[in-house]
Each structure stands twice: as C-alpha cells, then as structure tokens.
Write a structure and sequence with these properties.
The protein has 204 residues and is an alpha+beta fold. The protein is built from 4 helices and 12 strands.
C-alpha cells in the first residue's frame, strides 16, 4: 500500500469509524440476496449495472441496491404483510395504501448495512423492495454532491446517497427520507410549506 493510500484509508477510519471495503463481487451480491430474501427473488443480471453500493440511509454503513425479479410462484409470499422486508412504491408517495408487487414489476431491493461490514454482515437483514423504479440505468450520487448542486431548500429530506435514474422518461433520483424510499424529480416535486406559528403552536 502506498503512503498516500494508507493516509487516505487512515483518514477514512478516523472520520467514519469503519474500514474501507473492496468493491462487491456478483457472487457476494447473490449471497446477500439469498440470505435476506430466502429464495423469494433472484438477482436480475441483465441490466448494467444491476447493483450499486452506497450509504443510502446515512448511517455510515454500506448498503446494497440490486435489481431483482420474483421467483415463479412466490408473488404472494413477497406481498405478505408479515414478510421481513418493506414494500414501497416510490412513485406513489401521496397514497397510504400498502404497496403490492405485480408479476411484471421492475423491482429494486435495498439491503441496509450492519456495522463496519455493511450489507455483507450476516445481521444485515433490514430490506426494502421498491416497485417501478428499476427500468433505467442506475448511477450513484453522494448526498453532498446532490446538496451542493441543488441546495437543501429545493430538495426533499435526503438522509444519504441517492440513486440517479430515468423513470417514465423523467430524470430524478431515489432517496431515503428516514422512514422509506421516495422518488424525486424537479418537475413534480413540491417542497413542504414553511412552518407557521399559530396560537403558540407550529402549523404547516
């Protein structure tokens, strides 16, 4: 290891409290999907890239986003309310109706990391399944880059890195807001109105 690389790795550990990890191998991605979803879905290797790694929920642990497809006969189990993963439709944030996966849905699975090992850890089992947002080329963008480009006031609450895509012909990105994943694009996004003080209470 060169002196420069050693210095950068040391700085990373000092700031983030974890060691840098090597790029993911396809076999590691398949193993993680199998561990979390127990054979309900498989990695869809046709899209390029079919997976990305980043800190999507902002907890300084590497997460995995991977395009998957349901295994035949498992659709009802994937949609089960007691399943260990959370189903989200990022394109329909206005509705409170629980998302459901259909046969032909493009699915993006996001596995949140655990500790310094991130998504590779055996206890990294918190997962989201996002429908309708896996049909375009994916690109990772760091949270700080997004904020520098657009500014906080023009964006939703973004906790971590985002996934840039084009969905239904519109460019935007997937982001985590502290509770679930949402979709942002500059044409449809409407910022929340500023808080107002009404009779001593905060109102929106």
């Amino acid at each position: 290891m060169s002196d420069k690389l050693a210095f950068l790795c040391g700085a990373y550990i000092l700031v983030f409290g974890c060691t840098a990890t090597p790029p993911p191998k396809p076999s590691e991605v398949r193993d993680a999907v199998s561990r979390v979803f127990h054979g309900m879905v498989t990695v869809d290797s046709e899209p390029k890239p079919s997976f990305l790694v980043g800190d999507f929920n902002g907890d300084v642990s590497q997460d995995l986003a991977v395009i998957v497809k349901p295994v035949a006969g498992n659709l009802s189990l994937i949609n089960d309310e007691l399943a260990a993963w959370i189903l989200v439709d990022p394109l329909r944030t206005a509705t409170r109706q629980r998302a459901r996966i259909d046969d032909n849905d493009a699915l993006l699975a996001v596995v949140h990391g655990f500790g310094s090992s991130g998504w590779r850890h055996s206890q990294a089992t918190q997962a989201y399944v996002l429908r309708g947002v896996a049909d375009g080329a994916m690109k990772l963008r760091a949270r700080r880059q997004i904020l520098q480009t657009a500014g906080k006031d023009k964006l939703p609450r973004v906790w971590g890195d985002v996934i840039e895509q084009t969905v239904n012909g519109q460019s935007g990105f997937l982001y985590y807001n502290g509770a679930k994943y949402g979709w942002y694009d500059p044409l449809t996004y409407k910022p929340s109105p500023p808080a107002r003080i009404v009779h001593g209470e905060v109102s929106r």
